[in-house]
Write a structure and sequence with these properties.
Low-confidence stretches: 1-7, 276-305, 307-313
Structural class: alpha/beta
Number of domains: 2
Strand order of the largest sheet: 5-6-9-10-14-11-12
Radius of gyration: 22 Å
Length: about 375
Amino acid sequence: MDQQHSDTSPRPAMRRTRFVCISDTHNASPGGAFSLPHGDVLLVAGDLTNQGSEKELRKTVKWLEEADFEAKIIVAGNHDITLDPEFYSQYGLYFHNQAPQDPAKCIKLLEDSPSILWLKHEAAIINLSSPSGPRTTFKIFGSPLSPANGMWAFGYSGEEASHIWDPIPLDSDIVMTHTPPKYHCDERKDRRAAGCEALRNTLWRVRPKLAICGHVHEGRGAEIVRWDLDHSNIKYKEASVERWEDPGRGNKKMSLVDLSSRGRRGINNDGSRGHGENIPLSESTGTSAANITEDSSAVPAETLAAAIRGQGGIPPSKRCDNEALSGRLGRRETCIINAAIMASSWPHGSGGKKFNKPIIVDIDLPTWET
């Protein structure tokens, strides 16, 4: 139900929806390495396997299909190599020289699943329709891509990074990528930020409610980023970052991020989609639009701020990101979550495999029913 609402239209009811977020299971399954809490939607942000063999994928698909969620949405990761046929045709024998795999069969396992939605750098609109569920709707974009690092699948170069995330729709409620954005939930054990700067910049433009990722096991956690939208000619700024304290660390409690109206802290993001009927700057600020030039230094700071804050106001300079800002200023915050289940790096050291809990997110979403 990806429809815009005019100011006079009734707003949809909001209901709490529970997401269970995991990533980087690397062949681990519920009941052994970790348990799956109850929820409405299961989000899996890649690295389902170690090397993408058909046997590995069959095992993973089996437990995913048995998992009790109304919607189960996944992306692949760099270790799921058979799901990237182009990569596998070039490098597959380096991994499976004794028993070459058939990517077509591996892909078919996921494509034929009646209960798994596999996103491959694309968006989908989800309407939860179970009578016993929240009956809410959201738009999600999912991608397996991550910055190329060694011989692994779904990699992209630094030259490609500047445009690789252009397909993410600006009206996305959730963005799920295997890679983290740079400087958010992406710190490796060597203290290096391993995320993607271009993705971070795109998140500033899109400003979804949730950004789910994995890939960097040590980066597991969550941060609420408040985007700086008050400086209209400066893109990609952040006003603040609030680090999540895991209530389930070292005990039997759930690892819950409560962003609902019932929680300690909601999220300042109304999911506004923007609209074409922009209010002229002169109407929103009392200043003649003819006096606004490309040179923002000619415009008082309070006028710039008022122009951006005005619902549908037109940013006052060609250096402004008109598309990202106009009519979408209710999208102030994004919760970024690295949901890596595998706590240790791959390959695992002498300490053996260690596992994290799934991260649960409660968030209010609009109902699709009128």
